[in-house]
Amino acid sequence: MIKMIELPYPIDALEPYYNRETLDIHYNILYKGYVDNTNKTEEKLKQARETKNFENIKCLEKDLSFYGSGAILHELFFENMGPAVPSSPDINLMEQINKDFGSYEKFKQQFTESSKVVEASGWNLLVWVPNFKRLEILQCEKHQNLTLWGCKPLLVLDMWEHSYFLQYKTKRPEYIDAFWNIVNWNIVNKRFINK
Questions:
Q1: CB 74 within 8 Å of CB 162
Q2: Which label site among 13, 34, 100, 193 has the fewest CB atoms less than 10 Å from its CB?
Q3: What is the pLDDT of residue 52?
Q4: What's the pTM value of the predicted model, to 2 decimals?
């Protein structure tokens, strides 16, 4: 059984960039749903093993990938935001960003533009790819499609409409711009060090 992570800040702490109502629904209803459905799917898989009835195995494993990845990405998203966190990439991450993207400004522009064009339901991620020994920016459809095997998510931006529609309506670029004000680089730096 997986459990919901505790929000690392009060529900209204990301105002005005991410309002209380959006965060409340996003965390307490939508994220909770992914956690609950992951646990239900795990229970069904356990039952299939015990009864040796694998009739629905394809569907169950697809559900596990979808719901489980949704739970994990939401946890990363909530954790990589923070209220008035005066942080930036540390020297190690900044050196890697400069090496792989040319500069912090070029990285930020690519991440922003990539976020704007995520199709339908999906995510935008800064990831470390051990096999390439470099940072990459990836769009992820749903929660589990279009990834690179073995990559480690460092910075995660939820681009599903539920993550911004109540506050920003159809103004995706405004949501993305606001996100840069609440990135908790301390967490992103830590993820990079522990890659």
A1: no
A2: 193
A3: 97
A4: 0.94
